[in-house]
Write a structure and sequence with these properties.
By secondary structure, the chain is an alpha/beta fold. It folds into 2 domains: 3-124 and 325-338, Rossmann fold; 129-320, Dihydrodipicolinate Reductase, domain 2. Helix content is 28%, strand content 24%. The chain contains 8 helices and 14 strands. The strands form 3 sheets. Strands 5-2-1-6-7-8 form a 6-stranded parallel sheet, with helices on both faces. A 6-stranded mixed sheet has the order 10-9-11-14-13-12. The site of ligand 3JN has 11 residues, from loops.
């Protein structure tokens, strides 16, 4: 069976990755509609030997669509109701519906059982959350997690194509002795912008009343929902780093019972979508340059946290645009096809 697919936000980094993955994974599509804002409408995209014209998204765009892949951003809230009304299943990469109790928040390797309760919309978690829970799930299945402390090192790709271009331009300007300009990071709509080249910016998205950023609160709130455990104690610090495409995260976990490093390595290596990259004797550990463009998240630097009972530290890297966004969303659609849920 083939499915009529629409991609909303087809011209951005995540939209482009949807197209790469649909081709690479031979996703069974019949019709393909590329939708974007008025600004991008009319753009021609060559895909699998055919030329597609990007259309401006309207409520009517979703007639006859079976699967609507939303790349993210504000358009999701605008068009999700019309897409659902038209009978499409919306897999949304934005945060618009993630915490809605009626909307499953899904990483297919972690909580696929949540998909069945959807009422037309399935939410794709925040990229940093996806990458972290891919490592947490196999460990949680061995011993219940009590507390998580995570610090992230997030690629500029999370800020979109413009942020990637800004890093590239800043490095060139520095090498050529020109003025360094910052207009995008830590966020285009924020009042102040800072150089990211050779720098670290401890702000991703806006600050909330509790002095955490929205990105940090997403990791905290979304992880509890995905793991179905509101008793989880989590704190997060999310930082923008001068890396192009992969996020990296330092994770400290306190379990109810002790898990040995050997046991942790065993269950992580066996978990689908995770590659164990952990051999200190050979200086082997995950690095963003290595995980970019790959499907799996990579876990390493696994070691006991001797400062608490039943603690482990580990390091996880994953491609933010791939498993952090487009791949996870497409895998949700693939799971639904495999389990005849359309
Ligand atoms: O900046 C990053 O590394 C991740 C950014 C995610 C993001 C950026 C803009 C809007 C959203 C949003 O949909 O809220 C999101 C998200 O949480 O997926």
């Amino acid at each position: 069976k083939k499915y009529n697919v629409a991609i909303l936000g087809a011209t951005g980094a995540v939209g482009q990755e949807f197209l790469n993955l649909i081709e690479e994974r031979n996703f069974p599509f019949a019709e393909l509609k590329l939708l974007a804002s008025k600004r991008s409408a009319g753009k021609k995209i060559q895909f699998m030997g055919k030329e597609y014209t990007v259309e401006e998204a309207t409520d009517a765009s979703f007639e006859g669509v079976d699967i609507a892949l939303f790349a993210g951003g504000a358009a999701s809230k605008t068009f999700a109701p019309a897409a659902v009304k038209a009978g499409a299943v919306v897999i949304d990469n934005s945060s618009a519906f993630r915490m809605d109790p009626e909307v499953p928040l899904v990483v297919p390797e972690v909580n696929p059982e949540a998909i069945a309760s959807h009422k037309g919309i399935i939410a794709n978690p925040n990229c940093s959350t996806i990458i972290m829970v891919m490592a947490l799930k196999p460990l949680y299945d061995v011993s219940k997690i009590k507390r998580i402390v995570v610090s992230t090192y997030q690629a500029v790709s999370g800020g979109g194509k413009e942020a990637m271009a800004e890093l590239e331009e800043q490095v060139k300007a520095i090498n050529e002795g020109r003025e360094v300009v910052a207009n995008i990071l830590p966020g285009a709509s924020l009042a102040k912008h800072y150089q990211i080249a050779f720098n670290l910016i401890p702000q991703i998205d806006v600050f909330k009343e509790n002095l955490y950023t929205k990105e940090e609160m997403k990791m905290i709130d979304e992880t509890k929902k995905i793991m179905s455990d509101d008793s989880l104690r989590i704190t997060a610090t999310t930082v923008r780093v001068p890396v192009y495409r992969s996020h990296a995260e330092s994770v400290n976990v306190e379990f109810e019972d002790e898990i040995s490093v050997e046991k942790a390595r065993e269950v992580l290596a066996a978990f689908p979508g995770v590659t164990l990259t952990d051999n200190p004797d050979e200086q082997v550990y995950p690095m963003p340059l290595e995980t970019s463009g790959k499907d799996d998240v990579e876990v390493g630097r696994i070691r006991k946290d001797y400062s608490i009972d039943n603690g482990l530290n580990f390091w996880v890297c994953g491609d933010q645009i791939r498993k952090g966004a487009a791949l996870n969303a497409l895998q949700i659609a693939e799971y639904m096809i495999e389990h005849d849920m359309f």
